[in-house]
Amino acid sequence: MTMIDYVFEPGLIRSLPVADSTARFPVARVFCLGRNYHWGDSLNAPREMPAFFMKPATSVIDAVGELEFPPLTEQFCHEIELVVAIGTGGFNIDEAHALDHVWGYAAGLDLTRRDLQMAAKAVGQPWEAAKAFDGSAPISPIQPASILGHPSQGALWLSVNGVERQRSDLESQIWSVGEIVSRLSQSIRLIPGDLIMTGTPPGVDVLQSGDVISAGIAGIGTFEVRIGGRRAA
Ligand code: MN
User: Fold this and answer.
1) pLDDT of 128-187, one tens digit each?
2) Which residues, other chains included, contact 122 with Cβ-Cβ below 8 Å and sequence gap of 6+?
3) If you write DSSP's letter for every residue of 162-224 in order, what string do you get?
């Protein structure tokens, strides 16, 4: 076996726990879908696949304990989302076989610096400052599809300090998981370990230090995390 002569030790591979197992799911990339639930203003909008954006794998953390309050924002927002974990890669995946590429499902937060997103939208700049910060993707343990199947319905919700802010159902998704996997694979070759965050229902709002988030998706996973303080200078 040939050892590769790296100039420094490569970073640790990010991974998520597999539910009811000691195994962990290694994360490759994180794709995120924009609007995938009707927010009231969009009921009559044409059914256009919203844009995909990305978070780095390094933004993925276990959804446990305390989350660091990110720098550079006064509008740190929660978005509860179904997370699709890809186990078999592919390019131009047919929608009829798309679910065969899904290894499992989880519940996650697409944490967002909303003020930076609004500023970027206003001048047509990219969203990385708003979406790709450290710790911006806390995700629950992954439930294998081999056990769970491929749920197309189930409540998802998010509460802050015991007050419910977001509630919908997977059956309200505008684009199904199969459609999303198929469409994304027309743009890039999906690889094992890719995660897809599939959009959030209405009710997104700001978080403060000390807030406690309880969130989950029925049959897939629940979690509770606390928002910590801002990092000292
Ligand atoms: Mn989102």
Assistant:
1) 999 999 999 999 999 999 999 999 999 999 999 999 999 999 999 999 999 999 999 999
2) none
3) TEEEEEEEGGG-SS-HHHHHHHHTTTS-B-TT-EEE----S---B--TT-EEEEEETTTEEEE
CA of 131 from ligand 1 middle (Å) equals 9
Tell me how far apart the alpha carbons of residues 31 and 186 are, in angstroms, rounded to a whole number. Answer: 14
Q: Tell me how crowded residue 49 is: count the other CB atoms within 10 A of its CB.
A: 15
CA of 1 to the centre of ligand 1 (A): 43
Looking at domain 22-37+51-230, its CATH class is alpha beta
Residues 19-67 have pLDDT tens digits of 999 999 999 999 999 889 998 766 666 677 778 999 999 999 999 999 9
**How far apart are the CA of 88 and the centre of ligand 1, in A?**
24
pLDDT (tens digit per residue) in 85-128: 999 999 999 999 999 999 999 999 999 999 999 999 999 999 99
The values of phi and psi at residue 13, to 5°, are -70, 130
- With 0.70 as the threshold, say if the pTM is over it: yes
- What is the residue extent of each domain of the chain? 22-37+51-230
Cα 51 to ligand 1 centroid, rounded to whole Å? 11
Q: Ligand 1 centre and the CA of 82: distance in Å?
A: 10
